[in-house]
Structures are given as structure tokens and as C-alpha cells.
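Re: the request from the purification team.
They wanted to know what the chain is likely to look like in 3D before they choose a buffer screen. I agreed to run a prediction and write the result into the notebook, where they can find it.
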Amino acid sequence: MAEDRSGGPTRHETRFERADRNFSELLQELRVTQTGVQILFAFLLTLAFTPRFPSLDTLQRVTYVTTLLLAVLAAALFTAPAALHRSLFQQRAKPQIVRWSSDLARAGMAVLALALTGSVLLVVDVTLGRVGGFLAGAGTLLMCVGLWGVLPRVVRREVAPARAAAARAADMPEDDEDARPTEDVRPSAQVSSPAERGDD
């Protein structure tokens, strides 16, 4: 029997069953990132009302406003999949929702990395000076790029041989199992569950 990328048996799913599973996993990821965005946004909002805020120079104020707007944009990108799902509810569009939601999540991660960079730059600039702020901001950006961008590519490269072997064993193309839709070839009369009907 062929194996999926986790090492277990290949899932036999319809197109909509796979989309339901992928969307559920995506929502779990978004819950984690949304918590970080909410904490960052709350910190930035309260920062403007601290006694020391009026003493910030022009560059620090620009950094603050830019970072605040980036946090708002990140929050909007991470919550957009929920709005998209609600707008297309029961329209048999779950595969399209998953594809767009994945793109929105990637964009949100990039914006969040910039927001975190701006926050660290501002705080360290105020406490230790401009040079320290830029160094800390650059370090934060490199850390986000490494953990969120480089590391997934390294892991993907490590699992590629196993996935290729599983694909050959199953006599199927070597592409992303989760991204590739599977058509439901069963008769429509046998489709009874909400997931098989494509109901959201």
C-alpha cells in the first residue's frame, strides 16, 4: 500500500473531504498566529498612551505608526479566510477557499514578520539607542525568515525522496497530495455525508 508524506497509508478522500481537512488544519494554524498578532496589536495601542511617547523623535514615531499599520494588516489577512468561508458558505467552493486562504496566510506571515521587526526596532531604539535598535530589528527579521521561510524549505527537501518513492509506489504524479484535488468518481447516489456533498 502506498504511503502519504507522514509515513502512513495514503488517504482515500474525495475532493471535498480533502478540502475540509486542509481547511481545518489551516484554521488551527491561524489560531496560533492570531494570538501573537493580538498581543502585538494590544502592545502597540497602549504604547501611544505611555508618558514617554511624546518624547519620541520623528524616526521613532514613523516606525511606530508603520508597525501599527502592519499589525492591522496582518490581523486582516489572518481573519480573511473566515470571512471568505462565510461569504461562500454552501457554495461548493471549499477547494477554492482553501487555496485562497493558504495564500492569505502566507501573506499574513510575511507582514507579521515585518511588524515584529518594527516592534523590536522601536523598543530597543528607545531603550538602548539607534544602532542597537537597527541591529535588534535586523536580527528579528533574519530569525523570522529563517524559521518561517528557510526551515520549511529544508524540511521539504528532506522529505522529498520519501514522497517521491511513495508516489511511484502508488503510480501517481509526484506533486503535493494536499494541494492536488481528487475527483469523486463514485455515483452521486452514494454521496450522503455533508463532506462528500461539498457542504461547508
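For the purification team: Residues 1-9, 179-193 have pLDDT under 50 and may be disordered.
Please add any questions underneath this entry.
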